[in-house]
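Known limitations

Files may contain more than one protein. Parsers should not assume a single record per file. Below, a two-record file is shown to illustrate correct handling: read the sequence, read the token line, then continue until end of file.
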Amino acid sequence: MTIHIMDGMAVLRRRFENEMQGPRGVMIDEFARLPRDISVWCFEGQNHLAARRKLFPGYKDRPSTMTDGLFALVDVTRRMLQHTRALQVAVPGMEADDVIAHLAAEHSNADNVVIYTVDRDLKALEGPNVRVDCGPVKVRLTAGDPTSDVTIPPEQIRLYKTLVGDTSDRIPGLPGFGPKAYLACRPALLQVAMLALVAGNREVEPWVRAGMKEATATRLVTADQSALIRAYWNIIGFQTLPSTWQEHITVGKLDRAAADACLREHMQ
């Protein structure tokens, strides 16, 4: 059995914008799935940014690139999915990433879990039975030379993005501490220092022992900067779903004719 977990908006945008496929391609794929397999489409819940923006108001503070036409394609696809065996999940106050992380952990002992996304942050979920269908998080040491790329392992992605930052999510990271500075450190000891900071330890020594320059570490442990780093750590980490999250699952009812009619109606 394979559990297919879709990062809904990311997958649909990739198919519609980059791969030039329409909703019918999604329908064909869903009806072609093996009966023993499960398909789960995860979407953003209402007010999905609110919790993280309480921690850091600048989180994902950028103009939307969604167009009316793209919204329409997503809407008809979601209506069509109701006539397949697919499940759809959108939990209020939660981002799709949080739902995906919960599902990946809950089903990590399944035969095979595949997460479909373009969001490389989700590579942090990879494990023996969990595969994330996108490229790895990489650091390019020499501009224009892809052979110099260094891959950040899944277990380090949260730490790396907390300290270095994530421009796509508008997380600045620690000023003056870039990818090369991170790679010059010992990640295992950085992790120890980070967990100590989250617990309230603002000592410089653990960071210096991990390989961080003393001046940088001294700046990190100031009250204001350490509060920001803890906020970034919590933002980048996956949030715990409410106990009622399963109430927000929509289970599709297999009906090929109804799915086809839904798409034909959109085309008229």
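...continuing to the second record:
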Amino acid sequence: MYRDWLDNPISAGDATIARGVADFTEGFLGYETKAVNVLAAAEADPDCLIANAYAGALHLFLESPEAPGLARPWLSRAAKAQGTERERATLAALEAWAAGDIPRAIRIGREALARWPHDLALMKFTQYHQFNAGDSPGMLATARMVEDANADRPHFHGMLAFGLEQCHLLAEAETAALHAVALKRKEP
């Protein structure tokens, strides 16, 4: 069993697939193009649940009517794969998103974060839906629930800053943002 750079266990079959998964999470959280490397990893390992789930997520972010249909083959492959409980929860949240059930996707995301607070990709998926729903307090609550577990993670502080800013807590948002940048200069 491999672990990702956030110390979450992943079901990748080898180091190359694990690197593709890491590229997705690092790229997704950091707004970097390497996130698409998960597509090759998922293609190379149809039995890696999380690689295929993340490949589906990339398609869902197209935000077009075609997005769920483009995501479904990847999500279907993920559903047939063995994986960790955390990976299955991520897949369930993505399946809810593909089905258009955003409240369920948010609920699954928050429940999973209560168990696996280091899953910052899932945190970002959850905040993304809350942002699109106009639920600024929810965005902040999602960040606050995993704050203690992520004190040393720059991407967490960036997402915390976003939730604070959306709640018009600008001084606190600036403090969180400056802390994120102090931890990692390139933190968006």
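Parsers that stop after the first record will miss the second one. For reference, the second record is described as follows. The radius of gyration is 16 Å.
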